[in-house]
Amino acid sequence: MLTQKMLDAINEQVNAELYSAYLYLSMNAYFQNKNLPGFANWMMIQTGEEMAHAMKQYNYINDRGAKALLKQIAAPPAEWKNPLDVFNNVYEHEKKVTALINNLMDIAIKEKDHASQIFLQWFVTEQIEEEKNAGEIVEKLKLIGSDTTAIYILDKELALRAPAPPQGGPA
User: Fold this and answer.
1) Residue 170 belongs to a domain
2) Residue 35: which CATH number?
3) What is residue 149's predicted lDDT score, i.e. its pLDDT?
4) Nearest Cα residue to 131 out of 91, 78, 77, 162
């Protein structure tokens, strides 16, 4: 059984993951409007991953005999200066999500909730990958600058991203 403190924190994280999906969907729309389908593809796949994260947490709450409470999702931004600005936002957002996940783990440890600690370990590891991926694209975009040919090439590269197959961890 989840303590009230743990339940409240995971419910908040479900909302944060849904916001992340909403944010990346907004970024997808931005890139579609800029005729950058590869960047848009990257964001659509990211949207799906964030939805999957939210559902893992939602299902975990239910599996523990508690009730998931859905809250209002804040509206994300809709405009950015350029692709680098977008990915700087992605990178900063992923660092924020990492802090939220780490806070959840801290609560699980304090509440002596071993099941939640095991459940959250997957998300701790996932955030390493999330930050790495976003950071790499930021660095590429910094190198590219305003070179439209290089943006075109990166767009083609990002178009190759495919949804990751389900991996171990909470379902």
Assistant:
1) no
2) 1.20.1260.10
3) 98
4) 91
